[in-house]
Specification:
Layout (H helix, E strand, L loop, with lengths): L1 E6 L4 H15 L11 E5 L5 E6 L12 E3 L7 H10 L3 E3 L16 H5 L10 E5 L2 H4 L3 H8 L4 E6 L2 H14 L8 H7 L2 H4 L3 H12 L4 E5 H6 L1 H12 L18 E3 L2 H16 L3 H8 L2 H9 L1 E3 L9 H22 L7 H8 L9
Helix pairs in contact: 9-15, 15-16
Length: 354
Amino acid sequence: MWQEVRARPADFDVQFLTLLNQIQDTFSNDSPKSENFFIQLLVPGEFCILCAVSTPPESFEMRPTAIGIGAQKCASSWAHSVLNAHPDVGVSDPKEVDFFSYHFDHGYQWYERHFNCLDGYSVRCETSPSYLYDPRAPERALAYDKNLKVVAILRDPIARAYSNHLHEVIKGHIEPQSFETGMLNNPAYIEQGQYHRHLKRWIDTFGPKQVLVLIAEDIGKDPERCAACLYDFIGVDSGFSSAVARERRNVSDLARSQTLRHVLRSGGNLLRRAGLEEQLVQLKSTGAVAGMLNANSVDIRKQIPPMLESTRQHLTEFFAPDLSDLPELLGRTSLPWPTWRAATAGQTRTPIAV
C-alpha cells in the first residue's frame, strides 16, 4: 500500500505527523509485518513527497548490491567483465537489465530473477548505461535499496559521441553515414555526454560515498589499478588480479561474416557463464582463434568519414558549461580529456583521438 502527501516546506511538519499517525494506525503492533514498512523522503523542486510502503520485497538475498550506470561507450563492458572475473562477484545475464529506466513497470520480482543464479556471491551486480541519463533512475534505485553502490565510467564526451555513432552503424540501427548525419538523427549522442547534469542527480540522491566515478582514459592507461579501485569500492578483495582487466572490449569493427562472429561470441558467452573468463582471454590470444578474429574484423572507421573540424568546435562549445562544473563534482582539479582542456582554455581546435 502506497500513501503520498504533497506539501510545501512550510506545512510539511504537520502533514508528516498526520501521515505518521495514519501509518501507526494501519500497522498495529500485532501485525506480523508491522516492522517492515519504511518511509522515504524525496524533494523534487519546492514540493516534498512522502511515501510509505507497507511491505518491501522479501527476496533480499538475491538483490543486487551494486549497479553500473554507464555512460554508454565508456568501458562498461570492461567493468562488467572485470567484475565477472572476481570469485566473490556475480553479474547479471544479460549485462544490461535496464530495470530502473526502460523496464521499471515489470516490477521487483522480474528484476530479481536476473540474480537468482547468483546465490553464494557476496556481491551481485548489473550494468545498464541507460541509468546515467534517465532522470527517473536515481530515485527509483534509492527506493529499491538505499545501500546500493553505484559505479559510473566517463570518457571524453566528443570521443564518446563519435563512438556512439560507430556503435549504431555496427548494430545495423542506421546505414553507414557521416557522424554529422547520424547526430541529426540521434540527439542521444550529445545528450548522454552531459555528465555533470546527469551524474549530479545520482550523487545528490545516494551521496558521494556511494558513487564511484572512473575515467575510461585512466582505465586504458592502467586497467589493473582501476580494477583494484572498483573491487575495493564494492567491498571485495582488491588484490585479485586477472588478465581480463587488460583485454580490450567492444572494439568498433564490422564482421565480414556475421555467422562466424555469432558462433565465436556464443562460445565465448558459454565460457563466461561457466566462470571461465580468464581461460577465454587466453584462448582468444592463441594463434588460431586470434587469427579468425582478426580475419573476420573490418575497421568501421574506413567506412565512416572522420568528424568535421567545425563539428568538433561546435560540440566543444556546447559541452563547455557542463565540463567546467564537472571536476568539482568529482573532487578533481582537471580531467584528462582534450575536450575539457579546449573548453576550459577556449581553444576549440585541440585534436581528439576517436
